[in-house]
Amino acid sequence: MIHSLFLVNSSGDIFLEKHWKSVVSRSVCDYFFEAQERASEPENVPPVIPTPHHYLISVYRHKIFFVAVIQSEVPPLFVIEFLHRVVDTFQDYFGVCSEVAIKDNVVVVYELLEEMLDNGFPLATESNILKELIKPPTILRTMVNTITGSTNVGDQLPTGQLSVVPWRRTGVKYTNNEAYFDVVEEIDAIIDKSGSTVTAEIQGVIDACVKLTGMPDLTLSFMNPRLLDDVSFHPCVRFKRWEAERILSFIPPDGNFRLLSYHVSSQNLVAIPVYVKHNISFRDGSSMGRFEITIGPKQTMGKAVEGVLVTSQMPRGVLNMNLTASQGTFTFDPVTKLLSWDVGKINPQKLPSLKGTMSLQSGASKPDENPTINIQFKIQQLAISGLKVNRLDMYGEKYKPFKGIKYMTKAGKFQVRT
Amino acid sequence: MNYAFRLFVTFSAGEIFELKAELNSDKKEKKKEAVKKVIASMTVGKDVSALFPDVVNCMQTDNLELKKLVYLYLMNYAKSQPDMAIMAVNTFVKDCEDPNPLIRALAVRTMGCIRVDKITEYLCEPLRKCLKDEDPYVRKTAAVCVAKLHDINAQLVEDQGFLDTLKDLISDSNPMVVANAVAALSEIAESHPNSNLLDLNPQSINKLLTALNECTEWGQIFILDCLANYTPRDDRESQSICERVTPRLSHANSAVVLSAVKVLMKFMEMLPKDLDYYGMLLKKLAPPLVTLLSAEPELQYVALRNINLIVQKRPEILKHEMKVFFVKYNDPIYVKLEKLDIMIRLASQANIAQVLAELKEYATEVDVDFVRKAVRAIGRCAIKVEQSAERCVSTLLDLIQTKVNYVVQEAIVVIKDIFRKYPNKYESVIATLCENLDSLDEPEARAAMIWIVGEYAERIDNADELLESFLEGFHDESTQVQLQLLTAIVKLFLKKPTETQELVQQVLSLATQDSDNPDLRDRGYIYWRLLSTDPVAAKEVVLAEKPLISEETDLIEPTLLDELICHIGTLASVYHKPPSAFVEGSRGVQHKRLPPRTGSNESVESPESTQPVVGQSADQPPAVIPSQGDLLGDLLNLDLGPPASTVSSGPTSTMQMGAMDLLGGGLDSLIGTSFGSPAVMPASLNAPVGGGLGDLFDLGSNVGIPCGSYVEPKTVSKYPAQCLLFSLRFSLLKYQPFISYLTISSSQVCCGICEE
């Protein structure tokens, strides 16, 4: 199981270590540093690194490497999932998961890690159980504690720990009972030169914020549940009921949680909400190149496309770019060769465009690779797959909760090849 | 709590003294803050063991936070101060009787983490109590503690009968206790492979399946991994387990999903293929695997390595999902390379157009490694899908026109493989290749080019000039190129004897007299002797018709694949090696095998056998030609075989190695030498030779001298190259006494061959 954990920042310093079994020397990380040096980008450090006596499994998040040391045959996914859970927990506790935040809260971090893993076996990873055991630091609580001498550590066994619904604590009370659901879809797509779709898929999630008193039992039904043929559920969802009736029935955790995530694959038709017209050309022997892109809405069901941000990694041979944008602002970094154009909202009557020339390294042959255009956007009030919630009902409690559902579509990895 | 940050900078002897004073303070609050400071410096790796007695003194307190902090300290330092650690025992024993279950559990948990022999004796009684505690939280913590104790003192655990208690906990009423008991037993069983600790029978399986639905996600992983070790009695039991495991495929935790996939992949082996349920199960497996690819890149990587295995075992599961493996330009490199490999495995006539278009796109990307693999992939597609060969070749020519150096070199290497698969079909491209001769600076590309020139010497007017130009710097070339050049010139000589006599003399003397490389000298001498004694025979041998290279040379050998399928989701599946090969401490791990299929008649048209391209590989060993070490092939032939059967002059096994590269990505050195050897031995190596050799040299049991045309895969995978080489050299000795040196160590030879 997981032997030790090292936190390494991007400059290669170990700033925290935790051992669950015997102490493993820091020098084991040398193998990791070697791999880190070899990788061109921190993202490219391989997640599983073998060393003579151990295996190092790492994740890279928030510019920190979380390196787990293991000694025996352990499912790597188990370790990676756990590490991500650790990061999520830190973020939950400290607001941000940064080196400074971790160093500031080093004792809480240590207590958390101790609580999350015992002898390498996960112990408590549910956020609401952890929060009963170790209260998150807040300015107010720190002050109160210093004055009254009380502690951050709960001294009672968390109620959820062993119940049939371990994700929910008992005795929850709210004056305003509310349940909000956000249907968020991210569209991943690769569009080729000619504008046709190479792949397109939708990663959807339903995130919930439920603040309801007592033990409410919710059911959520969809207008078109057939869309959801590839789903992953939060453990609270009753799978049998879904299989039989395509209805989500569950006792929700308290607070924020991800109810389900789903995947609409390329076989189904995925609507592409924006298109890009581009004309990027380099000529052999010339030190100038032409650059022109226009972006417009395509299948948006009448909703506005907002928050559009276009980025593109230009070839190394491009020295500078001389462009004019019809709207928004753009920057080109001559060092990293990254072009970034903050478009904002697309007005269908007057399509935003970015045109001009590129100056190329003189004498060099024209760049071999064509830049790929990356697009980010948001569409409010729309789930691009067409998923719609039909109704939400609550059983088991008497009060009338306030219910709300929001839809949103975002670009995930949306790439246009040129 | 900002003081923690300050501590990272300075920590002097004066401060230690100050801390000591604070730790011994009467004020609780001050004590707690002091312990916190100690912990903070411990986390950054500073040695605060000098404070041991002072910290332990703080242990007896009602304040739970303080207690936990002291425990944290104890776990880290008890080992370095065993005598002092005894001081803590009394408090532990007392805490194990505390009315608060949280404190009881905490005490038993911490005690197990103190790895001091003397303490373990005192641990036994409290642990026994806690294993039978009324509170499940304490029981589940105690279960893990047994594993900890076993790690420190295995004999003690057995003597005290804790293992039996642990086994009883599998029938506990609380699912979390069951899960932890399973986890603890699995860990203990890992160090005792034959202990039969997890005695799985239908009753206990039933209990596990019930607990599976109710325990935490981590517990589910433990239980699923344990279930995977069970062998159902018949296909009905197998089906019923599958039915109860299938819902786990929809779990949000990817490790749960992959463990469930493992159980299903293993148990579906037992289901008759004509069963409706079998088809349904296949359908159900695809979506969760695809979903794993939308997770974080690290998860994707592990998932892809496993999908690589699954695609080889059951290609039908993902055959329609090609698009999800298309590479996004900001994927990390390790994900890109894995996706590429799977794309080729899934390539078929139906989707080849799409795949080729993608590959061409990748070949213009920025990352050099990735571009190279993409170019190689185009070649592999050509070899795999015959109908696409022409398009692949024209795509490769387009790429050569870009004149990007590494693209050109890579393209030439793969075109050589295409020639070996479709001889005399595409030589019209040779002219284009020759144009790029000067830009080749990598040995592999040079060797490939030389092979092409030699092979088609009769159609290249200036073949002699081309080869001569390489000969100038003969001694600076790598062995690979030297060997290739030697063979190519001999071929040229046999094809155009009149103009090239001088050239062949020159190369033979370079190879035999001026070279230190035994392989090169060997080959040189043999050619020389052949040419001087019987030119006709030489022609028959050197210019013999070559067997075509197979498209599936990179497949994992079937028995290994089956074993790896049993290890889906583990490190073994990431490295594509059996755990016995690399996991430390796995003393004599048993090889896992897929259960045999029951009650099915294999003759029924199965989805696998209707899959012509990849499918056949699952059930039968792939027909791999002995491309591994063609040197071997030639020499063997020269010596023993009828001249018509195998090759001379084979180019190095770039096809196979290329495949390995792709497969392994950055890891290929790991996958290592034992991997590329699902070898079917050349038929010409016949029994008398093996026997004679065995007589000559008592090579013992570990070097399995092959006595037939097929060698047990296990033996081969261990020492394929050595044993062949041995037999080779000795048989040469018998027939050609002038080869007098036999001093080369086998390891050296082996390396030479594998690196080819």
UniProtKB/TrEMBL annotation, chain A:
Pfam families: Adap_comp_sub, Clat_adaptor_s. This is AP-3 complex subunit mu-2. Gene3D superfamilies: 3.30.450.60, Mu homology domain, subdomain B. PANTHER family: AP COMPLEX SUBUNIT MU (PTHR10529). GO terms for cellular component: clathrin adaptor complex; cytoplasmic vesicle membrane; Golgi apparatus. GO terms for biological process: intracellular protein transport; vesicle-mediated transport. Belongs to the adaptor complexes medium subunit family. InterPro entries: Adaptor_comp_med_subunit (IPR050431), AP2_Mu_C_sf (IPR036168), AP_mu_sigma_su (IPR022775), Clathrin_mu (IPR001392), Clathrin_mu_CS (IPR018240), Longin-like_dom_sf (IPR011012), MHD (IPR028565). It is found in: Golgi apparatus; Cytoplasmic vesicle membrane. It comes from the Eukaryota. Residues 176-417 form the MHD domain. Keywords: Cytoplasmic vesicle, Golgi apparatus, Membrane, Protein transport, Transport. It is a peripheral membrane protein.
Automatic annotation (TrEMBL), chain B:
It is found in: Endomembrane system. Its main location: membrane. Pfam families: Adaptin_N (PF01602). GO terms for biological process: intracellular protein transport; vesicle-mediated transport. GO terms for cellular component: endomembrane system; membrane coat. It is a peripheral membrane protein. SUPFAM superfamilies: ARM repeat (SSF48371). Residues 17-534 form the Clathrin/coatomer adaptor adaptin-like N-terminal domain. Gene3D superfamilies: Leucine-rich Repeat Variant. One of its GO terms (molecular function) is clathrin binding. Keywords: Membrane, Protein transport, Transport. SMART domains: ARM. Residues 585-626 are annotated as: Disordered. InterPro entries: AP_beta, AP_complex_bsu_1_2_4, ARM-like, ARM-type_fold, Armadillo, Clathrin/coatomer_adapt-like_N. Belongs to the adaptor complexes large subunit family. PANTHER family: ADAPTOR COMPLEX SUBUNIT BETA FAMILY MEMBER (PTHR11134). This is AP complex subunit beta.
